[in-house]
Amino acid sequence: MQIATTENVIPTIGSKEIVAWLPTLLNLDKNHTIAIPSVAYPTYKVGALIAGCEVVTADGVSELEAARVSAENRKQPLALVWINTPSNPTGKVLSEIELREIVQWAQKYNVIVVSDECYVELGWTTTPISILHKNVIGKSATNILAVHSLSKRSNFAGYRAGILVGDGELVSQILEIRKHAGMLTALPVQAAAVAAFNDDDHVRKQHATYKNRRDLLKPALEKAGFKIEHSDAGLYLWATRAEDCWQTVAWFAEQGALVAPGAFYGNAGNEHVRIALTASDERISALVSRLT
Ligand SMILES: Cc1ncc(COP(=O)(O)O)c(C=O)c1O
Known about the structure:
The chain is of the alpha/beta class. The protein has 2 domains: 9-197, Aspartate Aminotransferase, domain 2 (3-Layer(aba) Sandwich); 201-291, Aspartate Aminotransferase, domain 1. The chain is 43% helix and 17% strand. The strands form 2 sheets. The chain has a 7-stranded mixed β-sheet with strand order 1-7-6-5-4-2-3, with helices on both faces. Helix 4 links the parallel strand 4 (78-84) and strand 5 (112-116). Helix 1 (14-25) runs parallel beside helix 2 and helix 9 runs parallel beside helix 11 (281-291). The protein is globular and about 55 Å long. It binds pyridoxal-5'-phosphate (PLP).
């Protein structure tokens, strides 16, 4: 992936840090509402709570519009929307059309949209697209930001390297506060990040590794009676056997596998579990043998 080394990119200390602090950096508080996906990575809510904002869940433009109107009526305007494509935990990918609808809606109503795209290179049945792609935003990134991370695409989690990119005005406003708050990425890590973002070969290898694991594990889970939903991209299989997620977690534990209960990500995940493709090839193969 080519990234612009221009003034509209801020290096971040991994992407979790910016997810947790962005509402605060944008001066949002109890007078504002933040929308997050109904099944979501928990840090979106954590960041909203740190800033003291009201949190609502909404997926897609019609739910976002309903959330905006209701926030307006409560006099806590909807100021920020998080989307996550591909999603952790579901692996759902927003299409170009869905992204465009969200951008047009956000620009019309002056709402900031931040797209967390840390799994964007890990597409299996589809090729995920960034909200900042020209087919989505056209010529204007107004109100639109994207978050990227090297933790997944480059297996760089320990380096803590990510970026925030997009609307130049918002980026400079956020940068101004970050530099005075010491939210700085160490120079050697920045140099490593530039090298990693400029190289796609290692990303192809990572992609192949995860794809092989997914190709083994998905059919084995289906044979064992699980329905795999979404999971079109990203590092997880989102699986259900139409039972309480804790029952499924216990069943996997008996097979020697640790999976995440869907309830961690919102009530809509109560009957799902998230199965990560991050265990070693050998461990994934061992689980596949036990399942089949
Ligand atoms: C959707 C999502 N965003 C952000 C992060 C944070 O990753 P990092 O801080 O390592 O970049 C994760 C980590 O699992 C994630 O799943």
